[in-house]
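Can anyone check this?
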Amino acid sequence: MGGYNRSIFTYDTLVHAISGAAGSVIAMAAFYPLDTVRSRLQLEEGRQSKHTLAIIRELVAKEGPYTLYRGIIPVLQSLCASNFVYFYTFHGLKELRSRRSQTAGSDLLLASIAGVINVLTTTPLWVVNTRLKMKGVGVVTEKNNNEYTTLCDGLLHIWKYEGLKQLWAGTLPSLMLVANPAIQFMTYESMKRKVAVALSGRQTPAWIFFVIGAIAKTIATSLTYPLQLVQTKLRHGHKYPNLPPNAGTIQILFYILKKQGISGLYKGMEAKLLQTVLTAALMFLTYEKIARFVFRIFLHRPMLR
C-alpha cells in the first residue's frame, strides 16, 4: 500500500493539478460572458436563439454589462476545485502506468475514472453556481433564493430547505457526461503524443497546445451537447408544466424532443461551442505553460511529459 501511495501522491501530479486548476480559472475568466449566454439560452425557454454577439448586445442593453459576469466568483471557485480534482486524479492514475502503455484507450479509461470521481465530489458546487448565475433573471425556482450570495451559503441553504439529495441534482447526466472530458483528454493526449513524435524531441510551440485543445473540445462537446442541456436544467430546476419537479434525464430529453424537436436539444450549442472551445484551448495552453515553467524552475523533469 505504501508504494501505491507514493506513486499517486507525487510532486509531478501536484504540479499538473495546480497548473490545470489555474489554467481553467484564467480561461473561464477570459471567456465568461460566453458562458452566460449559454446559460441563458439553455434555461430561458422564451429566449429566441440568436448568434452569440446579438445576445450579448441584447443582455447589455436590457440588464447592463454586469449581467454578463453574474455569478462569476462561485463559478471560478467551483472550476478551480473541479479541475484540481480532475487533473490530479488523471495524472495520478497515469503515473501508475508505464510510458509504453499510454494509448488512446488507456487515456479514455483513466479520464473516465477521473471524471466519475470529479462528478461525485464537486456536483454540489455546480448546482449552487448554476442557480447563482441565474438569480434575478426570472428563472430561479427555489424559495428564498435571495438568502444566499456565496457558494458556501448556497450549499447550506439548499441542504436546509431542499435536502441533501438536491445538492446532487443532475448527477446522472453528469456521470453520463464523463464521456465529454474523457473524449477531450483522450483526443488531446493522443494528438500531443503525435505532435511530440513529429517534432522529434523539440519543444512544442504554445499555439499547438491551443489548437489541439480546441479540436479535442469541439469533438467532445458536439457528441454530448443534449446531455449537457439536460444537466443544466436538472441542476437549476426545470419549469416544464407537464413534467413533475423530479423528472429525470430521459423524461426531460423526450419532452424537449417532443415539444421542440431535434433543434430543441441543441439550443444554445453555438454559444456553448464558442465558449467551451475557446476556454478549453486557452486552459490547455495555460496549463502546459505553467507546468513547463514550474518544472523548469525546479530543474525537475516530469515523469510522463
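Reply from J.R.: I decoded it. Residues 11-43 form the longest helix (33 residues).
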